């Protein structure tokens, strides 16, 4: 039998496949035997083992059940999924999903919580073309955007305050159709009962307290957290005392920004300018 050699260090996907093969062989099972126990074809198992097929979360969980490995494969899958994300961001997403209040300020692009699938896809595909991530990682990024947005409509929905720098509205992403749908999505967001949307116009000039994006989370126990990113990593600040000055600056930003009514009017005017 021609068995493809695997290099577990070549990628997380290869490491997943190598582990799967090793545990299967240790038990003396053929690929069709493991596939039968997992509910997958031998071809599917072979594809994952050799790195030709990307494992999914259901596949990882089935492997754990069939091989009795607890959550080893599920944890490995989650590490793969988050491999294209900045260090610190996956942890932030967990706290974001629990937050009672979310305050965010963004520059240049519409933030993930407000993106349409089409807008998110254009950004992810751009990273693929630059070679920064794989097509599979791009798909995971788009799926993560949808997962994060589900927190806005959970039973105990958070209060969400958003201030967008005007650059988020005028920077063209994906062409006029994508931008028109995205601007329409912003207006819909502003109409939700648990949201406030404001625009920080260019003419705020030096009165703008932030030069980079920032997010402040208020947890159900009123603990404060802030999240910011550099080019290399994200940083989650968990000490409430350190977050208070950021929260104060955010309130100053809101006071200087356009009202929600004026912000929605600006967005509506921009929409009229898209073909």
UniProtKB/TrEMBL annotation:
Top-level taxonomic group: Bacteria
Pfam families: DUF5753, HTH_31
InterPro entries xrefs: Cro/C1-type_HTH, DUF5753, Lambda_DNA-bd_dom_sf
Domain HTH cro/C1-type, first and last residues per copy: 20-73
Protein name, entry field: Helix-turn-helix transcriptional regulator
Organism: Streptomyces katrae
